Amino acid sequence: MHPLISRPRQLVLYIVLWIPITGMLVYLFRAAGLTQQEAGILLCVLAPVYAVLCLVAWYPCRATPLKSAGLVRILVTHTAAGILVAGAWMLIAMLYVSGLALLDTFQDLPKHESLYKLIFGCGVLIYALWVPSYYVILTLEASAHAEQRLSETRVLARDAELRALKAQINPHFIFNSLHSISALTSIDPAKARDMCISLADFLRTTLGMGEKTLIPLGEELDLIHRYLSVEKVRFGARLDMQETIGEDAVTCILPPLLLQPLVENAIVHGVSHLPEGGWIKLQAHSSAERLVIVVENNFDPEFKSKKRRSGIGLANVRERVETRYGKSGSFLAKADGDRFRVDISIPVERSTAA
User: Fold this and answer.
1) Residue 336: what are its φ and ψ, rounded to 5°?
2) Cα within 13 Å of Cα(257), Cβ side
């Protein structure tokens, strides 16, 4: 569809631009010997007619792109199109003038010998003036399409990266869980069996997570509780989980399995190296615009110097936040004495079911 017809604002601008063009034609017609009345009665019809005819210039411009058509082809195409459009306008003018000549007031109008030459010449000139305008529109449209394609490519790449990152979570968790079960089989076979049952329950819950893009925080918390039921078999009273969750935050949505790796990281690098046990604090609250989540735990600073703290899970969550939210999301992880804290701040999105 023609861009001026499909876009009301541009169509209005096109009509407005014809006001000075009509004024120029009035001046030229007067200079050719027509009276003010004759010029006015002619152009009140011929100007709108040619405004419609000049819309045709869009199609030769589209058929001869500046980058690929070549100068000769462009000149030949628009010369032919300009002659045809101006000729059509002149023919319409001849018919219109013939009709006006039937009136006593305008019976001398056909006697102006240069009238039709003027109409044809002005037609070619005005056509030539609109051609660059249409090329500008084509260039802007091509730029907009290129930007859209680039944006779509970035979205596809981001989604692919998110899927790849998310795919790392379960294997990482399963590896750690199986390692724990292996350690328990020789120490406490009954606990190892209980841990296998809890692990199976957790995996059933997360079976469909690979297809989900976002889930409510409440559902993420349920996954964390199922995960903790696995680790509680191993650590028992040594694992102290404390939660402070705002009511409004529960309905906020976020990428699935975003927080479970943080809790797992707190256990692997914190609780598991404290003989007396450790604690994990999970806080979440939301405002009108932001969802803020804090995961904090204690750890052994001496052990930290022997082993690099940031594991796969922590790095994975950081990348997922950056990939999903860009500059509108933030992820901060830092150690302070014997405490390790992760702060996540993301834009608020609500579940449609809320």
Assistant:
1) -140, 100
2) 27
